[in-house]
């Protein structure tokens, strides 16, 4: 590989995270090795920042994190940038989700995700067994865990700063109808919708995505897109992959992701694809 990046951005789900929602120790050690050699390594994920610690091995460190699909960025404990969903949008979306009985999680900054108690019955019903065949095991297990441990069921919305909405449906027809509803709402209120699987959708502030987050993180470190590589697998990675000089798709990525990238890993996320790719291309 002739191109030697100064910065590498790594997606989580389907990239450094396997389908058991874990980052392996050797992936962590490869990141450590590259950072010791002067590479800047970053995470760029759709997950909330607060979720990351439980998914990675002890001692896992990177130079920065772009979380919630570009809504917030951290360098260590420093907040590099942060945006929040307006309360009127939050309230409107919850009303519409309730009308269509769409599973939702609202992510406040620095607090557990929220779903309103009046919606609990239909939200829990979406996660009833058996798992639909087309739902990924990592997404399904994350929803199971959210229902049992992560969601705080509230009587009303609490807080004023929110990083994103996450929506899920057990059928493609249901989530596709919801996406159409969101697209209609975008004609009235400007916001960004992101998709990372056939069964979900996420909502962020207008004109925000992983690419905008990557740009702000690069600026913080005095780097440019021309010095940057990114690895991802899903539709929500497309803006980031199109932005950087060298884009890599996971072997398990969708065809539309592979079509716009410069390279594809030899192995999937379940076979430590990122570890082997970084080892082959950059180990001294």
Secondary structure blueprint with pairings:
Layout: E1 7-10, H1 25-36, E2 40-44, E3 64-67, E4 72-75, E5 78-82, H2 87-100, E6 103-108, E7 114-116, H3 120-125, H4 137-150, E8 152-154, E9 162-168, H5 172-186, E10 191-194, E11 200-205, H6 210-220, E12 228-232, H7 238-243, E13 246-249, H8 255-258, E14 263-264, H9 273-282
Helix pairs in contact: 1-9
Decide which structural class fits the backbone.
alpha/beta
Number of domains: 2
- Tell me the Rg in angstroms: 18 Å
Architecture of the largest domain, CATH level 2?
A: 3-Layer(aba) Sandwich
| Biggest beta-sheet profile | 8 strands, mixed
Gross geometry = globular
How many strand segments?
Answer: 14
Coiled coil: 168-195
InterPro entries: Cof, HAD-like_sf, HAD-SF_hydro_IIB, HAD_sf
Protein name: Haloacid dehalogenase
Keywords: Coiled coil
Description:
- The chain is an alpha/beta fold and 284 residues long.
- 32% of the residues lie in helices and 22% in strands.
- It is built from nine helices and 14 strands.
- The strands form three sheets. It has an eight-stranded mixed sheet with strand order 5-4-3-2-1-12-13-14.
- The longest helix is centred in the middle third of the chain and has 15 residues, at 172-186.
- The protein is globular, with a radius of gyration of 18 Å.
